[in-house]
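Structure tokens please, single chain.
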Amino acid sequence: MSTNEHWNPTLTRRLRALLHADPLLGMRNGDSRREESLQHYDSLPLVIKAFDFITEHMGLEQAVDRRQLTEALKPLLEKMDDAAAIERSRERHVTMVNRLVNALRNRTGQPFEMEYTVFDAGAAIRRGLQVRLIEEYESIDGRIVFRLTKEALNLFLNALDLDIEDAQTATEAVIQSQLNRGKFNEAVETAKRARIQSIRYYESIVTIIQQTKRDLSEVDWNVEVPNLLKNALSHLATRIATERAMWLSAHRTNDTQSPHTDHLRQIITVAELVDDCIQIHIQFQTRLMQSLG
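Here you go.
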């Protein structure tokens, strides 16, 4: 089996994306190495809140400066002070936010340098990666404000605990968009993710049903569980209809391609993966109907 069958460009992209979390985890490991007056502050929730606040205020006139970021983090810093039985201090909060920003900017504003391994042409190859998470720039009103880099924004948004139903809906929309734009290789990888999400959704609902059956006193089987099943059936009906339309779209796109091309193979793969999703959802739909009956 060739190296390419063991490793593919999608794995490389995911590895590079994962490496963007390394500076954040390094910050948390450094919490205990700060001076004693700052050791009770947990970096990660502060970073997540900072990312959220900066993202919410993206725009020419709404961008966040250091003072605004400090105010946004103040309630969390105060709660951490209270939990550690330490007197609240504005000066200490400013110091901590400055440390946080400097850590996100790698102190000097230079990118984080790291190496990673990929596999190509039958060999393990070391490559370098420059990672930036946050940048400062001058806004139109003269303030020095923050923005997340594209990579940090993707990391933050994709790390959210997205509801599986919403995730399925979004993924299928991406597949259709990729087919329409001729991004057939990317559509294959997205369709693989859609198939995994279909299996996850099936398992998540079945797990809930099994857990509730073990403790009937904790769940209302007259109202709560039937509502859960009905909502799942509604979601499945929508997914099946969308996937059938997508399957037809893939086949129509297939008809426009020349035989024996990579695009043709990729489109066929997308259609097969989408059909897998349809079959999983139909089987799940039947099981839920039997549970309701």
